[in-house]
Specification:
DNA polymerase, domain 1, about 350 residues, 11 helices, elongated, about 30% helix, alpha/beta, about 20% strand, TIM Barrel
């Protein structure tokens, strides 16, 4: 918890921190309403709080929102923001406009501890978890904060490796007494961490994306070392037997690597898994990262693989990468400053 800010805390947590000032529980609910409903971040503007309390809060909790320190704009309209939080934790946040949709891709950690071999974030190592407030900060401190229609937890880090703070941020986002955003407009992407996957399914109503990238365990372990400690077949068995409403979107993220995971046998196995789990397949052509040992496939090979899946009866769409020229696309976030 960031001791310099009340933003990102639940009303019950705010109540504990303001007790020393003689404030009551209903005052904590008032503060939460100002922060999350009215989106007012300066205590002196919270007009229904006692003046003395406003002064005490301003002195005790001077930091509310951390402004972005850098922004880059792609030729396709995608934007990438850099946030520099305390203790050297820097993260990137991608904003993707698409007709009447505006999707924000938020980070949950600075770096990542799981080291997927194709990912720029994994290559920089792990530098710490974000608080719920720092996750939400990425939404509220960008220029487009009033235009957001969709949120994806697909930025830097593994959301289930920071479950407590991610869950808190989801509570704040979806509670009708706080930010009141529909759970159907939020997607959490995970490689499938066993310890908290059932929590994601059972305690939230958000959409779920599982990073699969190969239907064969040994090959997946070569691409994603976390497969050894968190075998994805256990997650897939859980999903296949879980009571997940059909309107709640479940998808498999499948990055296509040239010469590795695009054969007919891959398509047949992937289609079988997807249909058993009632999941949609999002195909993503690999975005090359300098220094990493993978290549992007040809467009022809991508279409051929997609057609193989469709012919097997699966539903599969190709997700076009956005922001490639500013390293804002899937797997390319590495918290580096660019030119404003």
């Amino acid at each position: 918890m960031n001791s310099n800010s009340l933003f990102g805390l639940l009303p019950s947590e705010i109540a504990e921190l303001i007790k020393p000032f003689g404030a009551r529980a209903f005052t904590a609910r008032q503060i939460a309403e100002w922060l999350y409903v009215n989106r007012v971040y300066q205590f002196d503007a919270m007009s229904n709080l006692p003046k003395q309390l406003r002064e005490q809060l301003t002195e005790a909790f001077p930091v509310t929102l951390v402004p972005y320190s850098d922004v880059q704009v792609s030729k396709d309209g995608t934007k990438k923001y850099l946030f520099e939080f305390s203790n050297g934790r820097s993260v990137e946040t991608a904003v993707i406009p698409d007709d009447d949709r505006l999707t924000v891709c938020v980070s949950s950690q600075a770096g990542c501890r799981f080291g997927c071999r194709f990912c720029a974030t994994g290559s920089i190592g792990f530098h710490g978890n974000l608080t719920a407030g720092e996750i939400l900060n990425q939404l509220m401190a960008i220029d487009e904060c009033e235009q957001i229609t969709n949120i994806v937890y697909m930025g830097m880090g593994e959301p289930l490796d920071n479950w407590d703070e991610v869950y808190k941020s989801l509570e704040i986002l979806t509670s009708d007494k706080m930010m009141n955003m529909g759970a159907g407009r939020i997607t959490v992407s995970t490689i499938g961490i066993h310890e908290h996957f059932s929590d994601l399914v059972e305690k939230t109503r958000v959409n779920i994306a599982i990073s699969l990238h190969s239907p064969f365990p040994e090959e997946r372990a070569h691409i994603m070392p976390a497969q050894n400690s968190n075998p994805v077949n256990d997650i897939l068995d859980f999903v296949a037997h879980a009571d997940i409403p059909r309107h709640r979107k479940l998808s498999f993220e499948y990055i296509l690597f040239k010469g590795i995971n695009m054969s007919k046998s891959h398509a047949a196995k992937l289609a079988d898994i997807a249909m058993r789990c009632h999941a949609h397949i999002n195909l993503i052509a690999y975005n090359a990262v300098p220094g990493l040992p993978f290549e992007a496939p040809t467009e022809r090979d991508v279409v051929t693989f997609q057609n193989e899946l469709l012919n097997k009866g699966a539903t599969a769409t190709l997700r076009r990468s956005r922001g490639l020229d500013i390293a804002a696309a899937c797997g390319t976030l590495a918290a580096k400053k660019g030119m404003i």
